[in-house]
């Protein structure tokens, strides 16, 4: 979910070069949507735009990107699709927060999915550890710039509703993450859950379950009387840690 303006991002990141004129607000970013990104080029902080869902340079077509929106930090250095990007093309992906869905056992095979919104407690934008790739469309000889969000195990705030969360970087970690010459051991140390006191969550309407809905109302806390189940009756359905992170589909 991204609503911060381009001007706001320029000030927040102290941008040297701006390659996008505007960052239209979106309250329900979906895979393959454009998202703002920050990269370091020739020592300068550059604000640009990528398509969410990484398309590896060797891919035959761009459709693979819809399934490559997230990359598990534990395996990102050995997965063919991500290994080169995490070593050479790291980026910062800013967002106001993200939605996460709690799987609730209601007696059915599928269960229920109750959405939560997660944000920083200090009011600043979240800054995800991202990787990017440049893919050549051979049909029209154009380049498509795409990205993926790195994820890690959930902290204590998120673990009751999901076993994963995006890697959230603090300001003092940005330089190491963006430096392609940084020691990979130092880079891997950044891929940890956010401190428990850095993030908070609250229930929101199930209207966010449809990407057709995209308005500020999606961020409004759900009144206690409107919540589908009292918190004391909610039990999280166990998720397989080996599941692909693609199920975590709204990190902006």
From TrEMBL:
Stretch list, region Disordered: 221-252
GO molecular function, one term: single-stranded DNA binding
Listed EC numbers: 3.4.-.-
InterPro entries referenced in this protein's UniProt entry, alphabetically: SRAP, SRAP-like
Gene3D superfamilies: SOS response associated peptidase-like (3.90.1680.10)
GO BP field: protein-DNA covalent cross-linking repair; proteolysis
Enzyme class: hydrolase
Residue stretches of biased makeup (Acidic residues): 240-252
Keywords: Covalent protein-DNA linkage, DNA damage, DNA-binding, Hydrolase, Lyase, Protease
Family: Belongs to the SOS response-associated peptidase family.
Protein name as it appears in the record: Abasic site processing protein
């Amino acid at each position: 979910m991204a609503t911060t303006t381009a001007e706001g991002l320029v000030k927040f990141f102290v941008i040297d070069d701006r390659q996008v004129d505007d960052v239209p607000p979106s309250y329900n970013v979906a895979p393959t949507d454009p998202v703002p990104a920050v990269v370091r080029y020739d020592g300068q902080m550059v604000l640009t735009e990528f398509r969410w869902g990484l398309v590896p340079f060797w891919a035959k077509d761009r459709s693979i990107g819809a399934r490559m929106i997230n990359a598990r930090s534990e395996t990102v250095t050995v997965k063919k699709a991500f290994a080169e990007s995490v070593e050479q093309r790291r980026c910062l992906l800013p967002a106001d927060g993200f939605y996460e869905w709690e799987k609730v056992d209601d007696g059915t095979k599928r269960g229920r999915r109750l959405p939560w919104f997660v944000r920083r407690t200090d009011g600043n934008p979240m800054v995800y550890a991202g990787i990017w790739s440049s893919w050549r469309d051979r049909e029209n000889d154009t380049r498509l710039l795409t990205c993926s969000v790195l994820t890690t195990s959930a902290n204590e705030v998120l673990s009751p509703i999901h076993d994963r969360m995006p890697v959230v970087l603090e300001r003092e970690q940005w330089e190491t993450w963006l430096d392609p010459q940084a020691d990979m051991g130092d880079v891997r140390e950044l891929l940890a859950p956010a401190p428990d006191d850095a993030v908070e969550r609250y229930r929101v309407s199930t209207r966010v379950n449809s990407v057709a809905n995209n308005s500020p109302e999606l961020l409004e806390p759900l009144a206690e009387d409107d919540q589908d189940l009292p918190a004391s009756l909610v039990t999280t359905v166990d998720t397989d840690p080996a599941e692909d992170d693609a199920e975590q589909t709204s990190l902006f």
